[in-house]
Amino acid sequence: MNWKSLFTPGANMSPEEARKFIDIHPRDTYQILDVRQPKEYEQGHLAGALLMPVKEVATRLAELDRDEPLLVYCHSGVRSKAACQLLLAEGFREVYNMSGGIVAWKGEKITGGELQGVEFFMDREFPDVFQMAYAMEEGLRQLYIGLMDKVANEENKKFLERLAAFEEGHKAMLVAMFAPEDFSGIDDDQGWSNAEGTKDGGSCDDVGNPDVGIVEGGLDRQQIMDHFDSQLDTMQDILQLGIMLEAQALDLYSRLARQSEVGKSRELFHFLAKEEARHLGYLTEALDKLLAE
């Protein structure tokens, strides 16, 4: 290490500046590095962040893209500053330290370890990653539809209907851009066989379906339904649930993109991460507007 790097501060970003940076840049054009310990990461991290404890940075440089900007953070900004100095000394040109760390971050935080959600892909047999993603998108659509029966306010029902429509449009984009030529829907032993995801032509309300019981982000739909059953009384409740789900999805797809080989699978997961970031932006803007009223 060049000793001068010890006195090279690099560039700092406030959490607000970091959020704006994330909002305006496509998800596959920058990297987020969390240099805390695994337990800290599990308790809450930025969506799509790669966990690389500061003591491991020097030996894991090959995992980072030198051509993309790096946003680095830790608990309060001390460890991330040290990591930034090391990265600059190793020739990384665009490195930003998030001053104040995650304790100063006002946006959504994701809970769970690096493998959360990935087990969904490992435990189920699908012909390809496209059908995995399609099933998860359908799972979230069904969740929003199911939640419509649990809210009394008509405005809230319409908002959930709009969120479900987003996922339907998302599925259509997936089919248009990534579907195999012979794709006609998700088949399984419970009768789900059409591209709309309905069972035997009926409604999308079968929570026992193994292929759609997990929603975006690798979360179990029934657990979410049970947990939020009595907590969706206001528009703010609904927005916060949607933000949590979309943020988990962004985190999962970003990690899967990193773990995929270069090719169609990585392209698909980058596409999904980009779409989830867009949906997340819509929901957070709606929440900010609501809170300002």
CATH topology-level fold name of the largest domain: Ferritin
The number of E-state strands comes to 7
Cα radius of gyration in angstroms:
20 Å
Structural class: alpha/beta
Q: Which regions are unreliable across 5 or more consecutive residues at pLDDT < 50?
A: 1-9, 187-212
Tell me the strand percentage band.
5-15%
Mean pLDDT: 78
Largest sheet: 5 strands, parallel
The termini sit apart by 53 Å
The CATH top-level class label of the largest domain: Mainly Alpha
Order of strands across the widest beta sheet? 1-5-4-2-3
Q: From the coordinates shown, what is the CATH architecture of the largest domain?
A: Up-down Bundle
Order of helices and strands: EHEHEEHEHHHEEHHH
What is the total domain count? 2
- The CATH superfamily of the largest domain is known as Ferritin, core subunit, four-helix bundle
Oligomer: single chain
What would you note in describing this structure?
The protein is of the alpha/beta class. Residues 1-9 and 187-212 have low confidence and may be disordered. Helix 8 (235-259) packs antiparallel against helix 9 (264-292). Helix content is 48%, strand content 7%. The chain has two domains: 3-104, 3-Layer(aba) Sandwich (Oxidized Rhodanese, domain 1); 118-292, Ferritin (Up-down Bundle). The chain has helices spanning 15-24, 38-43, 78-89, 118-123, 129-148, 154-178, 221-228, 235-259, 264-292, and strands at residues 11-13, 31-34, 50-51, 70-73, 95-98, 214-215, 219-220. It is globular and about 55 Å long.
